[in-house]
Amino acid sequence: MNSIAFGQYYQASSGIHRMDPRTKIIAMLLFIVATFLCKNILSFALLILFTVVLSLLSRVPMRLILKSIRGVVFIIILAALVNLFLTSTEGATMIWRIGEWNGREYGITQEGILRAVCMVIRILCLISGTSILLTFTTTPIEMTDGLSQLLSPLMKIKIPVDLFAMMMSIALRFIPTLIEDTRRIMNAQKARGTDFSSGGLIKKAKALIPILIPLFVSSFKRGEELATAMECRCYHGGAGRTRMNKLHWKVSDTMGLLLFALLIGAVIVLNLTLRGVTPAIA
Amino acid sequence: MAELSLNRVSYLYNPKTESEVRALTDVTLSFPERKITGIIGHTGSGKSTLVELLNGLLRPTSGEVTLDGENVDGDWKKKYEKLLRYDREHGQKTNRHSLKKRAKIAAAEMRRTICFRVGLVMQYPEYQLFDETVEKDIGFGPGKMGLSDEDIRERVLESIRIVGLDESILAKSPFDLSGGQKRRVAIAGVLAMHPEVLVLDEPAAGLDPQGRMDIFDCIRRYRDELNATVVLVSHSMEDMASFCDHVVVMNRGQVAMQGTREEIFSRPDELVRMNLDVPQITRLMMMLREAGLQVPYGIYTVEDAIRAVSTLFDATGQAGGDADE
User: Which of A206, A220, B241, B320 has its CA 20 to 30 A from that of B140?
Assistant: First the structure.
């Protein structure tokens, strides 16, 4: 069951693993802002440096981080191509002219290449940075805890954040169970002669019915049983519930956040001071 | 003919990764035809993996599972090698191309039919029920075999009779049945395919004593009526003792003991050492022996025990009053 690494959590002991999930969520937001603020080569260099340091600190093997990027390779290529060919050619240094269409010139320009490269770096840093901060070093349960705490002010305006958090953690907890159920039912139906691999789209979709129906039935049954079990232990919504694992804000969390704020500050300063010195990128 | 056997089978989960787990090591077994063979073992001994290998759901990492000498996982390369070897041994000239073709056809045919020939009833089979009516659900497997509607109907009726349910149940939705009925309908769904070898993984788990008896009765009835071979996985020693002809004991992914049930249960000490229970009555006999009473070895049913103890009484006259029996 553990072979399916849900959410890709990587078990290790590092400063980033121990950080408060709330810190990590805020830090991630700051990091995303920073990646989009980068406007020149030096700030991108800083961004790369920061991401590399982050990955070293987290002790997540580089192999895994690269693997998480593999899923978005298509998006990266698309973004690169779009920037490469559709960057405005006005006043740009043309390298390879393709042609003219609707009174506009198309071709590959120096600026276009620069923009494409920077866009790739931006996406790479974005994906690896956020996955290091959250998915690799934070368990899904920690994440929901942190999120519900961060959003708890919304309770003042009657949004049941705690209920959402409970629903989310139950959903997360049952994913491995569901996967195991699916595997078992699939095997049972295969043993009765269902073939999932051959045939056209419609035939394949039809072959899913004998899996989906039992899966729904058992999920509903599970849900009912869980609800009964929770009620038996006097669960009645979130009001007044205490937590088993209380989150503690530590000095290191403040320091961590400051570091990310500093990153944004540095990026802005670089943007301002280098305006006109190095080529600006979008 | 339905000779199912395993030849030096090993199985690894997630081979060549960090999470590699060795589930089976070098298992060589064959299941006697038309007999009921019980597989017993502690949790994690590889029983369930073994079961999934028997009808090609899993492919062995090494070794092979064969039904009447043919590889069950439908790997045409193995079949090809076999054909090549045959030709070489018989000094025939080999046309590699046509051999390859023959091997591929045979392997595809095996992949298609193996599920019907080795019927597998998984643990808690009632989870596999899905169709609108019991009749359609039982007919699902035979339908996949490509049988005509009349043949399917015939098989449905036959299997519902074998599992001891009333025909009136056929029109009901499988989700409206009781737990024990669901279980029997699910088993009927496998029986309807007329498998030559019937494999059941803990078929009686979670049922009350009457339900257990019913299940075992219908398995025995199927075996008798269709001359099938039965493989039964269980961790209840009582079931093994009262129900199986042959017993295979698994321990840490290996075959620890195999033989007739008389042979296996005459070695209770070894079973205990493998963290396995012996039938309660056998344990009682062991205790009596330790207490100095001359009861024979190899008792695993209550009837035998009564006989043994009463002979003991007769032999010692009425003086044996200190025995609690």
Answer: A220
CA-based nearest distance A64→chain B, Å:
13
Edge-to-edge strands, sheet with B229-233: B118-121, B197-201, B229-233, B36-41, B246-251, B254-260
Q: Closest Cα of chain B to A160: distance in Å?
A: 35
Name the packing angle between helices B134-144 and B179-191 (round to 10°).
20
pLDDT at B93 over 80: no
Count other C-beta atoms under 10 Å from residue B117's C-beta.
19
- What is d(CA B83, CA B103) in angstroms, rounded to the nearest whole number? 8
Statement: residue A171 has pLDDT above 50? yes
The residue-averaged pLDDT of B111-130 equals 89
| Mutant choice from B13, B127, B201 vs A, greatest count of A C-beta within 10 A | B127
Determine how β-strand B197-201 pairs with β-strand B118-121.
parallel
For chain A, the domains span 1-139+249-282, 161-237
Hey, which residues 119-178 in chain B have their CB within 8 Å of chain A?
Answer: 119-120, 122-123, 125, 127-131, 140-141, 144-145, 175
| B129 to A214: CB separation less than 8 angstroms, yes or no | yes
Chain A: residue nearest B52 by CA? A187
Pick B251 or A244 by higher pLDDT. Answer: B251
Q: How far apart are CA B243 and CA B237, in angstroms?
A: 10
Long-range contact list for A157-160, CB < 8 A, 24+ apart?
Answer: A160/A237, A160/A238
> How many of the other CB atoms lie within 10 Å of CB of B310?
11
Per-residue model confidence (pLDDT) at position A4: 39
* Nearest-Cα residue of chain B relative to residue A198: B112
pTM: 0.74
Can you state the angle between helices B96-117 and B134-144, rounded to 10 degrees? 160
Residues 6+ apart with CB under 8 A from B53: B6, B9, B11, B24, B59, B60, B65
Q: How far is A215 from chain B (nearest CA, A)?
A: 8
Q: Are B128 and B186 in contact (CB under 8 A)?
A: yes
| CA B223 – CA B232 distance, rounded (Å) | 12
Q: Residue B294 burial (CB < 10 Å; 0-12/13-18/19+)?
A: exposed
The conformation of residue B296, written as its DSSP 8-state character, comes to P
- Exposure on the CB side of residue A1, measured as CA atoms within 13 A: 11
- CA-nearest of A24, A40, A26, A8 to A121 is A40
The conformation of residue A275, written as its DSSP 8-state character, comes to: B
ipTM of the predicted assembly exceeds 0.85? no
**Which residues, numbered 35 to 54 in chain B, qualify as contacts with chain A under a Cβ-Cβ cut-off of 8 Å?**
52
pLDDT of res. B142: 93
